[in-house]
Amino acid sequence: MKLTSTSTFTAIAVALVVASLAVGFYLVGPPGEVRAHRLDGERLSHLQSVESAVDSYQTQQGALPATLQAAVEQSNVVTGQTRDPETGAPLEYRRTSSTTYDLCARFAAASSEGVAMRWRHGPGRQCFSFQIKPRQTPPQLGYGFVPQPAPAPAIRSR
């Protein structure tokens, strides 16, 4: 079989494409793994939105919400952000005491290095625990104290 320049070029092109795909999979991972990490990123984003809604509810009401729905109704969190982006299953909110709660979700893979420590997770069902600070009431004026303007400086004549 005689090699022509066309068949040589074709063989080199095919080898380069195969090598590029192999390097791409090695660096980035297979498409299924990339998709799993993307969905896990969305899950974390949804959990962070829910945490913000619960915090906002607690600030306004002075207590943790009894249900996730109660927190969402008083916030600007989109209802879709309370569900798993892949399965549509609701994210889990569980009030564990008057000042603590858990948020849980099911992850496809372990978190990557770039994820903040408090949001790191392994594969499977993971829960994140939160503790709120009791609402601080602003100091009340009254109680017999009435603010008075400072006295004007005395003017002396010479």
UniProtKB/TrEMBL annotation:
UniProt region (Disordered), positions on chain: 139-158
Annotated keywords: Membrane, Transmembrane, Transmembrane helix
Domain of life where this protein originates: Bacteria
Transmembrane segments: 6-28
Keyword Transmembrane helix: yes
Name of the protein in question: Type II secretion system protein
Source organism: Phenylobacterium montanum
